[in-house]
């Protein structure tokens, strides 16, 4: 479970009832997005039931939680707020493989940007936003080389910034 301490009252408020797999705090500190397992699930179990919850922290005494994805059969993990707080990037555990998605911070306009069907070696690198909230960085592996991709928010690969060199693993 995730809990917060209200320093004015020294009271602890529980934000989530179960296991959390990734979270992100908005720049203003008022919103938290987190990936939560279904209640009672053990880590790694029922990953298809993981949903993204938006938690309003503006009043710790009245914390509100909203399930933004409420999906069946897929799991949403590794959420990341854009710096302007308007969008959220996240990864999806879909039946056909891993996917990278974005949505508005209220859960609307959920859009798939990248999938293993289109990009077979997409790997588990949490999405990271550019400071202007216009681009995302994510990782992939092509022919044994780890690559860092820059994508626009429509899913177009703008640049593979690691094509010029490779990472040596010792």
UniProtKB/TrEMBL annotation:
Database matches in Pfam families: PD40
Bilayer-spanning residue ranges: none
Similarity-based family: Belongs to the TolB family.
Protein name: TolB protein
